[in-house]
Design a protein that fits this description.
The chain has 14 helices and twelve strands. By secondary structure, the protein is of the alpha/beta class. Strand 11 and strand 12 form a beta hairpin. The protein binds pyridoxal-5'-phosphate.
């Protein structure tokens, strides 16, 4: 029996490596990266630091590991960290910032994920024996739970002014920062120049099988390297991970625009289906959220119906689902998905 080929819109993490990436893995020069002897890793780290306009970079296993080594490198045990209330670090990283880094998260709600400097100031606590010391502000760009929304370079600059005024570090979870740069048609350095350090993921829209990169000053990356080691993340012939990363930085950034065009077409098509609600202005990059609350189904039930018809989407909450475009999704897949959603909705309307 032939298995069904799904149109997989759950996440851009489902992307498979390109043939060029697989060839690069085969051809990679390898060495022991804990001894700093893997020339492919070294090359990727130099490229990444340059692209981001920072002194140094460090390859790590995942976005979660990147965030954790960065939190550890920017703080001391018992510090308070201001982060966006819907941020990935707060929601989806197993509480590592408390469980491992011993930090107190102080969530501040942003507008579509964008922190307002005034709200950060309001969250600041005076020096007082009762309060922990605040060390860090974290922003997320693009913002996952708000549906790929962008914090613009000017908005980051405004947050960085508050950070400087209070002597805090500013960190960016830039898992999808290239989506933001491509969408606004600006150099990624326009975002990174306002933060002290950041991470970005190779394994999402850039299509690599594994890996994220932390970037910052020499001193910060030295600490991050040690923190990576204590977390068991010191890797040996990691050039097999770095080789596709090099292809990604050279070839996979500009094509993110296609994902954004497909996300826009998907969102506009969904918005025309009677009973599906989409906030079109929130669709800024490659993530589309839509609401089925006018239909007699939960989002789980809607996702099951999609699956029965060959489309995979992720329920976000009881009434909302998410679809993410990526290199595995072509315009014809978008059209097919819209037809399938339309026919499911027509049946639900009876
Ligand atoms: C904004 C953001 N940060 C961090 C991560 C964590 O990345 P990983 O799944 O590689 O641990 C994700 C994953 O989706 C994310 O969306």
């Amino acid at each position: 029996m032939k298995t069904m080929e799904f149109i997989d819109l759950r996440s851009d993490t489902v992307t498979l490596p390109t043939n060029e990436m697989l060839e690069a893995i085969k051809a990679a020069e390898l060495g022991d990266d804990v001894f700093r002897e893997d020339s492919t890793v070294n090359k990727l780290e130099i490229m990444a630091a340059k692209k981001m306009g920072k002194e140094e970079a460090l390859l790590v296993a995942s976005g979660t590991q990147a965030n954790l080594v960065s939190l550890l490198g920017n703080t001391k045990r018992g510090n308070l960290v201001i982060l966006e209330a819907e941020s990935h670090i707060y929601w989806y990283e197993v509480g590592g910032l408390s469980a491992i880094a011993s930090l107190l998260p102080w969530p501040v709600r942003g507008d579509l994920g964008v922190l307002d400097p005034k709200d950060i100031e309001a969250a600041m606590r005076p020096k007082n024996i009762h309060f922990p010391e605040t060390a860090l502000i974290c922003i997320e760009n693009t913002h996952n739970r708000y549906g790929g929304t962008i914090t613009t370079p000017d908005q980051i600059k405004a947050v960085s002014k508050v950070a400087k005024a209070f002597g805090l570090k500013l960190y960016m979870d830039g898992a999808r920062i290239f989506n933001a740069a491509v969408a606004l048609k600006v150099d990624v350095k326009d975002f990174t120049k306002h933060v002290d350090n950041l991470m970005f993921c190779l394994s999402k829209g850039l299509s690599c099988p594994i890996g994220s990169i932390v970037v910052g000053t020499d001193e910060f990356i030295e600490k991050a390297r040690k923190n990576r080691k204590i977390l068991g993340g010191g890797m040996r012939q990691a050039g097999i991970i770095a080789a596709p990363g090099i292809v990604a930085l050279e070839k996979m950034i500009d094509r993110l625009e296609e994902d954004h065009e497909n996300a826009r077409a998907l969102a506009e098509g969904l918005a025309q289906i009677n009973g599906i609600l989409v906030e079109l202005e929130n669709v800024q990059t490659n993530i589309v959220h839509f609401d089925v609350s006018e239909l007699p189904v939960t989002s789980d039930q809607f996702a099951s119906k999609l699956r029965e018809n060959g489309v995979l989407a992720l329920p976000r909450d009881k009434k909302r689902l998410r679809m993410v475009t990526h290199r595995g999704i072509e315009k014809e897949n978008v059209d097919k998905t819209l037809n399938i959603v339309d026919s499911i909705v027509k049946k639900l309307h009876g």
